[in-house]
Amino acid sequence: MSTTLITTGGLGIFGDFAARTIAEARVIELLRKVLNATIHGPFRALFDQTTRAPFQRHDVRIDVTLTTAGEANEDMIIALVRSELRTNAPLGERLFLCSPKRYPRDYYHRHGFTEHWTIDPARGIAADDPDTFTVLDYSINGVSQDIQRSASKGEQIYTVTPRDVTASPGELYHEEYTYRVLMPRHGQSLYFTVDVPTRNFSLKVNHFDTGISRLTLVDFFASETEPRINASSATLPAPPSVSVDGWIMPTSGVVITWNLNTPALAKN
User: Fold this and answer.
1) How many Å apart are CA 252 and CA 57, to the nearest integer?
2) What is the spatial order of strands in the sheet that 76-87 belongs to?
3) In what order do the strands lie in the sheet with 155-160?
4) Sign of the alpha-carbon torsion through 11, 16, 17, 18
5) Whether the Cβ atoms of residue 156 and residue 68 lie closer than 8 Å to each other
6) Which of 122, 123, 240, 246: disulfide with 224, CB 3.0–4.6 Å?
7) For the segment 109-152, what is each residue's pLDDT rounded down to a tens digit?
């Protein structure tokens, strides 16, 4: 079930004013004062979150491929996640965390994690093992970046320090990265959230030899337009996907759930 706070689509014109320069920031502040008495409720909340955020993401595209982890690890599947986006975030370190602990949401923001995964040690998976989580590649504006890995106290962090690229303050630039995650086949859920104001989002899921009989996408987007969900079927074998046009509020996202095709797999 989706949570759509605004369906008018009218915010797009204001979203174009996302602060990219000091001059535009002043325009936004003036516009906010003028509209202060006329923007109310969820429309106002979305406008404020978009324009006050330190940065935004645009045109986020995530491709997820689920495959078997092999006969030696038949209870596990591998998720290969490929992300592409444009952002005006300040050029700086990009951090990917894999941890057995779930921290408060503001912890990830304070430490500037680009992605964070929580691995339950009760599942028999070690969060600090590179076979559990690995960042495979990262590029900015087409320039491949070096990736450094460190592990401590049961966690691992992958760090990318941008080099050979420049971006003016507020300027949109392109990022691409791929990572791999090992997870229990019987976990039967995987979710992705939006942590900063994001304009335009899409996610597609493929799965091969995983024992999955049915895969479903459940969205919880707070957005200015209704999400579009395309479900796979016998007559429409295309990969399941979801997309949202326009601005999306932080903490929105989508859950991937699945059913296993044999009672033995489901029981395990």
Assistant:
1) 13
2) 143-144, 133-140, 173-184, 76-87, 57-68, 198-208, 241-248, 228-230
3) 113-118, 94-99, 155-160, 147-152
4) positive
5) no
6) 246
7) 777 788 888 887 777 789 999 999 999 999 999 999 999 999 99
Q: Which tokens hold the place of 117?
A: 């995964």
Residue 36 clears pLDDT 60, i.e. is over it: no
Instruction: Find out whether 64 and 203 touch, Cβ atoms under 8 Å.
Output: yes
Q: Given a cut of 60, is residue 30 above it in pLDDT?
A: no
Question: Nearest CA to 16 among 44, 56, 60?
Answer: 56
Percent of all residues in the chain with a pLDDT value above 90, rounded to a whole number: 34
pLDDT band, very low/low/confident/very high, at 160 (cuts 50, 70, 90): very high
Which residues pair with residue 96 across a beta bridge?
115, 158
Residue 155 β-bridge partners: 152
Conformation bin of residue 4: beta by default, left when phi > 0, alpha when psi is -120 to 50? beta
d(CA 251, CA 102): 16
